[in-house]
Amino acid sequence: MMLSVQNLDKRFGGVHATRNVSIDFPAGSLTAIIGPNGAGKTTFFNLISGAFRPNSGKVIFDGQDIVGKSSLEIVRLGMMRAFQVAEIFPSLTVNEALTAAVISHQRKSWTFMSRFPVPEAQTSAEEIIELLGLEDKADTLSRNLSHGDQKLLDIGLALAMQPKVLLLDEPTAGMGPDERWRMIGKVQHLWSVKKMTVLFIEHDMDIVFKIAQQIHVLKYGAVLATGTADEIRRNQDVIDAYLGTDHHLSEAIGET
Amino acid sequence: MTRSGMLRDAVIAIVALAVLVAIPFVFTKPSLRDFLIYVMAYGLLAMSLNLLVGLTGLVSFGHAAFFVSGAYMFGLLMQSGNVSIPVAMLITVAGTAMLALVIGAICVRLKEIYFSFITLAFQMFIHSIILTWVSLTGGDQGLRGGIPRPPFLGIDLGNSVALYIFCACVFMICIVVMRQIWQSPFGYTLRLIRDNPNRANYLGVDIIRMKLGIFVIAGAMASVAGMLLALFVSGAYPEFGFWTTSGEAIFMIMLGSSQLFIGPIIGAILLRLLEHFVSIYTEYHGLVLGLVILAIVLGLRRGVADFVVEWIERRKAARAPATTEHTACAKEGAL
Amino acid sequence: MNLEALFSCLSSSACAVTQVSTALIIGMLLFMVASGLSLIFGVLGVINFAHGAFYMAGAYIAFFTYQATSSFLAAFLAGAAGVGLIGVIFERFVISKVYGKDILMQLLVCYAVILIFDDLVKMVAGPEYKMMGMPEVFALPPLELAGGFVPAYYVFMIGASLVIGLGLWLAIEKTRMGKIVRALAINPQMVGALGINTTLLYAAVFGIGSALAGVAGALAAPTRTLTPGMGLSILIESFIVTVIGGMGSIVGALIAALLIGFTRAFGAIGFPLFVDGMMFGMMAIVLIIKPSGLLGREVTR
Lengths: 256, 335, 301
Known about the structure:
- The structure holds three protein chains of three kinds.
- Chain B has one domain (2-242).
- Chain B is 78% helix and 0% strand.
- Chain B is built from 15 helices and no strands.
- In chain B, helix 3 runs parallel beside helix 5, helix 3 crosses helix 10 (207-233) and helix 11 crosses helix 12.
- Chain B is globular, with a radius of gyration of 21 Å.
- In chain B, 50% of the residues are buried.
- Helices cover 73% and strands 3% of the residues of chain C.
- Chain C has helices spanning 3-11, 13-44, 51-69, 72-93, 103-125, 152-174, 176-186, 188-193, 198-220, 231-245, 250-270, 275-289, and strands at residues 130-131, 143-145, 148-150, 225-226.
- In chain C, a hairpin with a 2-residue loop joins strand 2 (143-145) and strand 3 (148-150).
- In chain C, helix 2 (13-44) packs antiparallel against helix 9, helix 3 (51-69) packs across helix 9 (198-220) and helix 11 (250-270) runs antiparallel to helix 12 (275-289).
């Protein structure tokens, strides 16, 4: 098991944001986390990536419990994340940002004597640019990229660290329908090429049902259901939870 | 590519140094030489501060602490009569680096405006130590008795031309070192922190340590600037460490540009010229300076050099066909 | 270092009373200045580096008003109102232009304002020291307390500061307006959406925060020598106070201000050379152990 979350629990004052969540993520899996707004999906990511500390529970990552470790330590163990709102470096070009990220991964951030970009890092950065299909924007300032390209770059930055586990918080947030499919196609492509364990949060049910191997549904911070696309589609709890709260899912379910 | 970058910078540095050294032989007025030494000392201070402000996004309001500690440490070492000038300089740089390490270890944990304030507070602490420890520092009278300049390796800094050339060489060495930091992987990692510290943290960058590292380097560089000034005026005064000195350094960065490597030096030249002309007409140059700052910040809303660069780009864009106009607009919108 | 003198002072009630009253007035002045700084930071998110200059302005306005009218009440009110007005003008025409801009710009405009104020004072009042002298209203025999003497004005000063501090606390914690101001600090868009004029509110908060500095200046005027540049040391000290007490906490500011006041008053006897060092040491310890300050809320940055 690459990542195993056991009885994870988190309260913010009176709000019980994560309730006794236990999920296993096998190595090389592609898993979707879904749920209505406020279900605690992003909190779940924050807990496993070390941004928040859970009140109780374990997070076993690659054989060791990482609860209590700083986000920096967890990153260095190989768990990377991309954010719902693209977190990028506005005044650096795509190439510069990715190369600097690769340098960080190689633990060469304290190098004074050579000049940026160092050739080894440059090569890896170029590979990522190619993988993302951003070749013609390599020298564009990150702040001048389109919304979709900024989201891609955010994922690319995570890839620069050669993650074992990649957490994607709504990779298609804020995109039009066509763009969503292009984006998710790229995510699936990355996953199959890099053979990482990928967890992603997604609202678009068509996308989730199409590409996720496993789906976990969160509601009020607890796991409501777990299963493959077919199982989730037929799960009465899920249908009940979504009917009335998310019209889109009921449509998606209706199609089958 | 990377080798050629270093080579190119080395060539530029050598040419610039040659020009700098040649100036007093072409224009022999001593006042020009004095002006240039001032610009080098304050320019170096502003450049070292810009390692924090422009490169790392840390706006220190207390950078003069290291400027003044450089001047005093160096002055006291030379007055002790036990060491030569180069040895005293090395000890001073190391000593100031230690000081910056201690102060920085506390300061870099704080973010944004908090950082500005606490650096200012520490600077005023050092200023007050200098004022109160009269037996060592001479209090508000400054370091008494002048700073001796014993000859070393056949160089006699008692000669004003030799002193000028020595200052120019030290200045250029520091510039080259800072340029290397600016262009190194270390420098680009600092840019990550400047642009988005949270994301940098999630890319495995140890932000606190990186900030501390550059804080120490910037402090050490500022001490060299302080030493140049102490050598030149043959003394050290508490005003070197007063908050207005830090404020001036920040203003130099703003007058020049925080994103252009040599921006702060341009700012240092502009500010020195401004102060020179203002002091001819009025004794209230704080008032005039304050009004100029307000006019620039509220009128231009950016640094003078940034404004000029943008203006040129806009002129170019206006002349070029529509394709480039688009990118210029995008850039402007982002600013 | 003269700890013997410190102990002998502490064991004589006369000396102890004198020093305690000194500690209290230093503390209360600092509290006034620091709570203004803290209020402005808490709501507007900017640290007003020109706050010390406002304190100076308050002292000078009081000084000139007193010379013109011989009324301390008029001097006090003029100091408070004048600086409050300066604060509003400064917020509207200067600081509001750099909200959301990089810190460099915020710092520079404050730097500019300090330079301008210091030179204006030099122009108007001259570079030399000025003394306001004790107002006649307070030309009363000092209070005798356990063998020590406390000037009547000190008692007034401490009382006035406490009343103002309490008023501020009540206004923020207990009134509708205070509730709106607290909401403004957390979510300005929401407050704006409720139909409240946030622009006006920002200016008002800045004005009140500045007026607090003006009040402190006016209160300090009879007891201090006035010089251009007098605002800087109190700015640094009030920053230390807000760091120790916790940004945005009025009670924290009071505790920390008294702490600094006592350190100053008794340090002046026992270890005059290390008073500054002590203050900075305390600040450093608080920053390392509890970066949000003694009573600061954990969520503040």
